[in-house]
Design a protein that fits this description.
Blueprint: E1 2-8, H1 13-25, E2 28-34, H2 41-53, E3 59-60, E4 69-77, H3 85-93, E5 100-107, H4 112-125, E6 129-137, H5 143-156
Parallel strand pairs: 1-2, 1-4, 4-5, 5-6
Antiparallel strand pairs: 2-3
Helix pairs in contact: 1-5
Length: 164
């Protein structure tokens, strides 16, 4: 069995964190794409409202087969203290029964813990065993600093322990 890191990233910071995790944990990587236009002030405003309301969206891939993975990392930016609609949609379409899950949230400011709490509730209801959670603050950080912060979390949380 193997490890999968599945995530959504709008501006690239969650993408960088996920790629750093995959590199250090020898994990497969799958980026979820939201088919709704979330660019521009008006669309971003409505996106945060959609996140808060846990509205579904069209995503690619539409469904993810988790059969060949025993450990799943799920990553989401924090929008209005909530996971993104793309990640909510993904979770609602997956069966996590018997899967170990690590949750991570990126955030410009704070409220990442609220994001993680909701993610944990959702995946647990779908059969997951959440084994670890963490947040990464991204505001005003260079790509090099984000990579460094992710590497520190890998060591501090001993994430390599969960590799099989």
């Amino acid at each position: 069995m193997a490890t999968l890191i599945v995530y959504y990233s709008q501006r690239g910071t969650t993408d960088l964190v996920a790629k750093t995790l995959a590199k250090h944990l020898n994990a497969s990587l799958l980026r979820i794409h939201d088919l709704k236009n979330r660019e521009g002030f008006k669309n971003r405003l409505f996106s945060t409202i959609s996140a808060f309301r846990e509205e579904k969206t069209d995503i690619l891939p539409a469904k993810v087969d988790l059969t060949n993975y025993d450990t799943i990392y799920i990553g989401s930016p924090t929008w209005s203290g909530s996971p993104t609609p793309a990640i909510i949609t993904l979770i609602d379409r997956c069966n996590f029964k018997g899967k170990d899950v690590v949750l991570f949230a990126t955030m410009d400011a704070n409220r990442g813990e609220a994001n993680l709490k909701r993610l944990k509730e959702k995946v647990t209801m779908r059969g997951a065993r959440v084994i670890e959670c963490f947040t990464i603050a991204t505001k005003n950080k260079s790509p090099e600093q984000l990579v460094h912060d992710t590497e520190v979390i890998i060591e501090v949380k001993d994430l390599k322990m969960y590799k099989r």
